């Protein structure tokens, strides 16, 4: 087919007059049965490079994509053009997916989009083997996901690599991506070894104005947004680092009467779809999201993309900002950077991106002895599911473990003859990621054209400056937090109460509420003091805060009785608190819920299953009549995984309680701390110490786990101890008092053990009072920061 | 096979409809040996098929049709490989030399395997016998498996009931190695792989199939894999055979091919066809597996003649008085020297036998007299 002939058909089917030159080069190769890797910026029209050939081939084109939103989008577009297309994904019921597969088998589809995870579906496997299904072309969208060197490696993409290598010569394959460094490009070409040629376009996005705003605190980010977001015309996306922070920022905007909603992968599918629709229809000023949103959303007029947390690399950043301004019109790209705190989260991902080697060995030993599913592995190894997922992905890539389909479930097997675990590649990957992160920091510090920086990093050699970034325009933005804004923030923090999502259709447990996240507004410190430092009952201000949370969430609802969760260790803190709460709410307080056996502390167990097992049938009420027909307010101090509340909820429902609603003082960040795309946040850093108020930044402080305190490997503790001792002596000399009056040795040891990074961290140090912290706190923090490697 | 990328080509070629193994292998020899070509190159060199490979027009059409299935077979191959199965093609150095030597041009074009492939080239021993083997035969099997394992030889088993299963389980018990030769496609053997998972991952059991990976079990495949069991072994031990069925057919076939087959000499009072096999040329061995020289065989095996058939049918009628069965089910319970079709014909001719269609199959039973209100003696 000549270009002219093709463009006639293009006009007829798609309504476009011409192809771009690079589009035609790709299409021509595809029509000749070749393999192409296409690297072109967002908005180029990569999809047409396979959609057009698909209409010309006899048979069906299969498109692998990890982006459900994109698939949905593309299918709608194709159907609108009269091209039969559909997609299968986890968001559809099985019957719906099977129906689509049958349509493909019966020749009713020209294009079928499929999420790589669906490749394991039995129905799909049966159909795709059937010679009745004539397969014309395979497309691999977001091809950078193939490469472990890439920013977005997806384990299920390895199946696609295997498949592509098995497809016959002269069978057309198109791999597309907008974000691939040279290294990733080379890696893809090596993996997909059969004669693949690559075509790379320039990545310059002329209409994007890039800004970096340096701040000293989260407050400054929130204030800047409060003052400026509405000044930017149009709709946009605000990206945050964690799920918790999506909620907090969205609530902040709500408080300011800015039309915003939060989005992350913890939200149910229907709600996600509604939000995506709302975004497409400009229903919101902004959507606050983790990087779960945006991938594949084909909205042409996103006018701004704001990052409140720096990404781990320029390529991640380029991809995320790529959502903006697809219509070519001016769009604003803002990145906040707090040099004191914002490095911690991305560094923690990189430094602890892989679990310890001994955990890999644990998983290998487990599957060597038995064919296991994910739950089985979790039970035997006592590792968190996120860790297990990362470990299994690596073991499968290294051909040590096989993922077998057993009916409708997956089982993991050890592969006979497998080599030893290659940890060198982990180290190389870690170093590579650290290098990329350094480049991200260089971007932040850059005084030259920002777009040029990003494009050059990605392998483009941009000759000219963009002219529209803050550096090109010589504009530097500062934030001033006035007293009025401080008051607003304080007021906001008193109104934001995290929801406990425990509702279950199989029993009468309903969602509840916590007064705060652990660590916010001194809540964590206060709880800690009472529980572990003999600080007496939980203070009254916690009761007031909890009651505020209750009224906000439950309104004027009345409950018949108040119960409390019996503690693992003895003590009346929760009982006394519950009694006071009942009195304040004018409810009956019943001290009848007990444990009928000893349970272990839940924090020992890493998996939900083990936590559940620990609590199974552990609770008892001797006289169930006291509960039957009653609504129950269930009090506890801390909510973590929710396993305890759920177990009690199930039990009380069985006894006839009509409703069980949990009310707790603090919800831990662990309960909500996730990022997307399976980013593993190690337990030791999924911390209760939190940057003031808003974002649950994980810090390099320890979490008291069962086994050990985490001390970052690179810090010379003795050195810092020595320096602090010297400083203490100087201070003591200045005031003519003995050094121990500044703080005693025990406190010094506590400081170097915990390595606090903020003033708030210091509040958790035994022996450091508020006055001392006010006087010397910042100096102590600075000494630690300066002397960490 | 270079990084398994040729797997779809091998799958496509090995299961060409209407082509027998010999014909396929002859083509493989031409491609790989004579022309030093990969299968991939061959499939994409259609212009050379006629002249260089001397293929007829029908053959060319068959191959073109098969070629159109390559993308589908690529998906199958991906699924196969990702689940830890492998393909050992006949030209691979990992292919069993014993199998090739014994079957030559009729050796299976591909073997689908899971586990320790090195077992394929170890010294191996087949222990075969009836599905309804007596205890003495099972004990013999256990004994031989023990000896074999102690000698670091591999036990080859068909995974059928009776002697096959005993051979496998004994080999595992005595920490030996074994090959399971499946009567079905390897990807349909999920429960077996689950059961022998430890042994497979430890390298002690290798699962092998010569059939399409998704082929479900049927009696035809069970029969077809028997010669493979024999051909994979350097020594063949027969624990117990009837005068018909898979074991019998396999031994007769092996003797025809000049294989040395060692048959257990039965004790007095045992009723099986072992003595007949010995008469036909198999070597007699004792319980310990030692060859018995100058044997005089007194066989108590039922003679297959009209009386024998009559007795067999009587047994069938007794059975059908209590149960309703298909011919296949009947043959599993009563040893008869006839096929299911022949049995059905025989039963249809009998006056007291009635039929019933259940689950799309004809079942037979003995017509009962109408019950009377009062029992009579």
What would you note in describing this structure?
- The complex is a heterodimer of chains A (789) and B (377).
- Chain A contains 29 helices and 23 strands.
- By secondary structure, chain A is α/β, with parallel strands linked by helices.
- Chain A is globular, with a radius of gyration of 28 Å.
- Residues 672-714 of chain A have low confidence and may be disordered.
- With 377 residues, chain B is α/β, with parallel strands linked by helices.
- Chain B folds into three domains: 3-82; 117-285, 3-Layer(aba) Sandwich (Rossmann fold); 308-366, Winged helix-like DNA-binding domain superfamily/Winged helix DNA-binding domain (Arc Repressor Mutant, subunit A), CATH 1.10.10.10.
- Chain B has 16 helices and eleven strands.
- Chain B has helices at residues 7-14, 21-34, 39-43, 57-67, 70-82, 97-103, 135-150, 163-173, 190-195, 197-201, 219-232, 246-256, 274-279, 306-322, 327-333, 340-348; strands spanning 86-89, 110-115, 124-129, 154-157, 177-181, 205-209, 235-240, 261-264, 283-285, 353-358, 361-366.
- The longest helix of chain B is centred in the C-terminal third of the chain and has 17 residues, at 306-322.
- The interface between A and B is large, with 36 and 38 residues.
Entry keywords:
heterodimer, A: 789 residues, alpha/beta, seven-stranded parallel β-sheet, six-stranded parallel β-sheet, 23 strands, 41% helix, B: 377 residues, Rossmann fold, Arc Repressor Mutant, subunit A, 3 domains, nine-stranded mixed β-sheet, two-stranded antiparallel sheet, 42% helix, disordered C terminus
Strand percentage of chain A: 5-15%
User: Which shape of chain B, going by the Cα principal axes?
Assistant: globular
How far do the termini of chain A sit from each other? 62 Å
**Greatest interface and its residue counts?**
A-B, 36 and 38 residues
Q: What share of the residues of chain B lie within helices?
A: 40-55%
Gyration radius from CA atoms of chain A, angstroms: 28 Å
* Spatial strand order of the main sheet of chain A: 3-4-2-5-6-1-7
End-to-end C-alpha gap of chain B = 75 Å
Biggest sheet layout of chain A: 7 strands, parallel
